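Let us practice reading a record.
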Amino acid sequence: MTGPNAGTLERRRLLGLLGASALAGGAGCLGGGEDDSANEDTDEKRTFDPTIDHPGGEPVAFTDDQNCPVCNMTPADYSNWHSQVAHENGEGAAFDTSGCMFAYLVANTVESPVTGAWTVDYETGDLVDATEAYFVLITDEHAVDDKMGINPRTFADRDDAVAFLEEYDAEALTEDDIIEFDEIDRETAEIYRGNRM
């Protein structure tokens, strides 16, 4: 097409393509793919394989070549949310969010125990020892604008988790909604990634 509106039409096509691409990328994170419908029709539960070598002891660097085993996103792109797990056998996984870490912890294929885990403190933005952290189980997906839907809020210090509860008014939460790492189970993981499990 030529004429005074040709540039406008091409711009609209470009914007439409960009919008469709963004929606497709978001759909990958939120579920809705062929794998999800297959899981709904059977009793088969999804499992997740380790994706990185991890010596344990301390966190490894998040890199652009790592992918989350739960959603396939790149954890390095989400420095305010990313997490990682190390197994005794030297395998591990990196995640874009703590919600994905929850899913992996209850549905991974590794027979080796977890020897370390790290995630980002919601208040400080620091990578903290997840095995000693406190997780606030928020559940109102309409009250937040998280990556991948909703995610638990992680705090290195229990007092910070309690202070968050006192200020968070989107839903009625109590101190019973604060859990520790060893309390993560399938039920809590499904709050965050039920569509992927």
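A brief commentary: The helical segments are 6-30, 34-41, 98-107, 158-167, 186-193.
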